[in-house]
Amino acid sequence: MTVLELDEVEDLHRLPAGDVLALLGGLVVERNRLDAQIAGLVRHAELTQAAEHDGLASMRSWLIGHLRLSAAEASRIVRAARLLAHVPHLAAAFAEGSVTAAQVDVVAGAMGESDRARAQEQDVDVDAFDRAFTAVAVSSSHQSLVVAVRAFADVLDPDGPEPDPTEGRRLTMSAHADGSVTGRFDLDAVGGEKLRTAIEAVVQADRPAGDLRTRAQQQADALVQLADVQLAAGDLPVLRTVKPHVVVTIAAEDLVGEGTGPGTAATGFGTVISAARARWLACDGEVSRIVMGPDGTPLDVGRAHRVVTPALRRAVVARDRECVFAGCDAPHHWAEVHHLVHWAHGGATSLANSALLCERHHTKVHHGARIWRDPGGRWHTFRPDDTEILTGPRIG
Known about the structure:
Blueprint: H1 17-47, H2 59-66, H3 71-83, H4 88-96, H5 101-110, H6 113-121, H7 126-139, H8 142-156, E1 170-175, E2 181-186, H9 189-205, H10 215-233, E3 248-250, H11 252-256, E4 265-267, E5 272-273, H12 275-282, H13 310-320, E6 335-339, E7 354-358, H14 359-365, E8 370-373, E9 379-382
Antiparallel strand pairs: 1-2, 3-4, 4-5, 6-7, 8-9
């Protein structure tokens, strides 16, 4: 059974097991071929700087902003695209569908530009490794290829890398729909000792009588307390004129009310929380008043300022959240407040005349690009030729 016959199958349950597996195998081959074509197009677009057509600096940022790929997936595609011209045997197997994108990524991780340069300096035969890797990829397991690729790194540096314990440090955090956060970390012995000492100090200094919670719960409290102490100290790096702080947006009537108010407040990272929790955070925090219009848009902060004040910046961040240039998701602490009509031309330093733009796109707008916010609150981005930059896959 061919892949093209899939649409003709009315009930997969009626197919023999062999046909189902053959159909699945054929689909994977087709996916591999498509992945190879995507990598080729990305490399061509990178070499011709096609992303500049939509005001972006790289194909990685274009894949993230316009096709909504994850940062990891966009990086994988670009990495593969840059490798394939240097490994013709692997590229051919990829194009015919017998090698997966994941296998290409394994090789790309060990044969980057700097690795190939070192191989050339040491007269290492990259073509021989290309042939060997391809043979393993088309006939053996994924893990076998991982093992084979290590041999290339060993040849380049037979003594192994200079030990650096910080290279093994990792910290990942994932936010869930309810705003809770989970994560994991890996630390070297010294880093781990420092963290354990700090957490243990907080645990031992704050053990109220009768606290019967688990050790894990106490340590989690200590970790949050460490963050509280550091934020309160006020000596963390400044982010665009504003010291790092926990931001919570809540209506005044909800803040002064007495009910729980589920889902009535939002944090700076977009997590929706209750009014009760917001009141708790505001109990020992700084409260900034931003007057909101009936459509939920922050109103002008009132006074005219040539230099954007922290109060105006907070209002712009509350409205825009991130860079408003099409296809860009740069966070607000990377961004600058842009005057839609420059103050030198009579433009007011006000919320209505402001937009949040990362440094690169702020420059783009001052060199011909244009942004505009429609009455519904949606930002639009236009190229210098006044054609609009639209995001999302091109359908039809």
